[in-house]
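Q: Please design a sequence for this.
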């Protein structure tokens, strides 16, 4: 006894014990398109009620597997289903008989195979595409950014006037060491897919500043340039979002940034802080994350979206430090000129920038421009050597700022002879120093541990002769007892940052010795004397002068001895 499609509903013919046909729906389905996504076929359909109301829906291949999943696809209470699982299978056969077109699908917004996907439109290198070869098909029928984005289209004359105002004010809204790294990073996000592949990662933008510094306002303005709506639409996401929401956000886009606000590590439970750190490290590398479902299956999330974080403190964990571009803002540096520039920008249709920038992005020879950015960075740094990740992050920042400059020149609002190098040099220096310090190296978990131990020695939480021994330019550390005290200190003070096990710290100690850095011996027999007793203990020997040259402040050990 099969399923029959009527004029406005589906029904079954009467059986031996039935007198009339049995209606099993309040609608019929008209397939519009078959969309292939991740190797599986999905169908976009119209669901038409008996009252001729039309609803759009997307039915994934898995949605035909059960009555419950099929019913979850129904977008309105006007759509009623009275059938069984068998009836769902019969309906699938009916829908499959319709001959409709096929297209490629994507669940992510942003750049995809030479096209730029918005929630309701697609652009290529020439602008809007009337019949694009791919379809945006987010999981669950609605993406996390769909209500946040609103492209704006202007006439050629209005767009030129808009760009003139934008370019004459944007670099004036704060100091170069703030604006250049942030604008460079933001402009580079449109190229994230290619840049991350070439450089094996894409940095996280970390914007820090005390209350009143304007960091959230600053980021909302830049986000609008990338297509975010003004007003409530540009409200940033919160760092307190659940893991599930964060996974969905970070997998919702390939080249449109996701910005989190209110990063307050001191207010976050330790497990939550660790989970966030792991997620950000995966986002830098573009790795996948997995989440279990009630039916024992797992859902895969490819964390491809560029990420920015804003808070009163920067991301400072050792494992993240080489993965960020850091910006520090202060209310003390805001001037009347900056405030006026911001007021001017606020009145502009900022979303219009992206509709002009996208064709430029899709026409850009990324390899050529990346090589130019690498060459320019090398020239500006001179002989200074930086860790590979830091160098790559700065390269991406320079790349992005170069594209911002090139686009302005292409549109005739910047002169080729305009010299932006002084601004760029200030931005590079500031971003580099915030991550590496003057010494050009990023701190590891071991470095932070030793600095905290020096503070504990200075405040009497570690005892000379028991936990460590200071001797002129050397300090000997008994690692295990010091770690025991540090764990207690870490727990009591809710200290931000990594806390590794002893083996992990010993690995970093060995690597430090291999680099001929500040650790001269990892297990030297040292005579410790305390309360008239003397014992020989194995200790990590540290040269304080070399530690200072590496950017560490271990003066607490010296101060404790002199007291």
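A: Design:
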């Amino acid at each position: 006894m099969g399923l029959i499609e009527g004029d406005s509903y589906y029904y079954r013919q009467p059986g031996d014990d039935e007198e009339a046909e049995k209606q099993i729906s309040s609608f019929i389905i008209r397939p519009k398109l078959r969309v292939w996504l991740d190797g599986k076929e999905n169908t976009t359909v119209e669901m038409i009620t008996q009252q001729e109301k039309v609803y759009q829906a997307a039915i994934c291949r898995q949605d035909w597997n059960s009555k419950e999943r099929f019913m979850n696809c129904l977008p309105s209470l006007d759509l009623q289903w009275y059938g069984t699982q068998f009836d769902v299978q019969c309906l699938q056969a009916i829908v499959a008989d319709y001959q409709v077109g096929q297209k490629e699908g994507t669940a992510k917004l942003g750049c995809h195979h030479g096209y730029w996907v918005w929630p309701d439109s697609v652009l290529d290198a020439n602008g809007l595409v009337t019949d694009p070869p791919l379809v945006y098909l987010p999981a669950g029928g609605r993406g996390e950014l769909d209500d946040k984005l609103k492209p704006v289209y202007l006439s050629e004359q209005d767009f030129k006037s808009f760009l003139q105002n934008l370019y004459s004010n944007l670099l004036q809204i704060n100091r170069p060491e703030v604006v250049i790294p942030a604008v460079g990073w933001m402009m580079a996000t449109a190229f994230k897919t290619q840049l991350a592949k070439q450089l094996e990662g894409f940095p996280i933008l970390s914007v820090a500043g005390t209350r009143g510094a304007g960091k959230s306002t600053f980021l909302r303005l830049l986000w609008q340039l990338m297509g975010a709506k003004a007003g409530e639409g540009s409200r940033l996401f919160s760092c307190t979002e659940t893991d599930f929401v964060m996974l969905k956000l970070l997998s919702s886009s390939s080249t449109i940034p996701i910005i989190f606000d209110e990063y307050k590590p001191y207010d976050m439970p330790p497990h939550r802080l660790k989970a966030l750190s792991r997620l950000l490290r995966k986002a830098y590398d573009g790795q996948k994350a997995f989440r279990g479902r009630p039916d024992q299956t797992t859902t895969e999330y490819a964390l491809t979206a560029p990420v920015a974080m804003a808070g009163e403190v920067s991301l400072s964990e050792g494992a993240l430090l080489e993965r960020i571009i850091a910006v520090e803002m202060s209310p003390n540096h805001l001037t009347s000129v900056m405030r006026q520039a911001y007021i001017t920008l606020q009145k502009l249709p900022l979303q219009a920038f992206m509709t002009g920038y996208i064709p430029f992005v899709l026409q850009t020879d990324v390899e050529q421009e990346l090589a130019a950015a690498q060459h320019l960075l090398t020239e500006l740094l001179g002989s200074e050597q930086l860790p590979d990740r830091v160098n790559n992050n700065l390269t991406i920042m320079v790349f992005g700022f170069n594209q911002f400059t090139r686009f302005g020149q292409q549109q005739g609002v910047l002169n080729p002879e305009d010299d932006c190098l002084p601004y760029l040099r200030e931005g590079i220096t500031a971003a580099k120093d915030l991550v590496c310090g003057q010494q050009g190296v990023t701190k590891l978990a071991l470095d932070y541990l030793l600095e905290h131990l020096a503070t504990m020695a200075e405040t009497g939480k570690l005892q000379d002769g028991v936990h460590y021994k200071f001797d002129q330019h050397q300090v000997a550390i008994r690692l295990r007892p010091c770690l025991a005290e540090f764990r207690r200190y870490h727990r009591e003070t809710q200290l931000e940052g990594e806390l590794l096990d002893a083996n992990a710290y010993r690995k970093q100690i060995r690597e430090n010795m291999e680099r001929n850095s500040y650790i001269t011996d990892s297990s030297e027999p040292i005579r410790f004397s305390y309360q008239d007793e003397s014992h020989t203990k194995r200790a990590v020997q540290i040269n304080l002068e070399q530690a200072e040259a590496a950017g560490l402040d271990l003066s607490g050990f010296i101060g404790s001895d002199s007291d």
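Q: Thanks. Anything notable?
A: The chain has a mean pLDDT of 89. The first strand starts at residue 3 and ends at 5.
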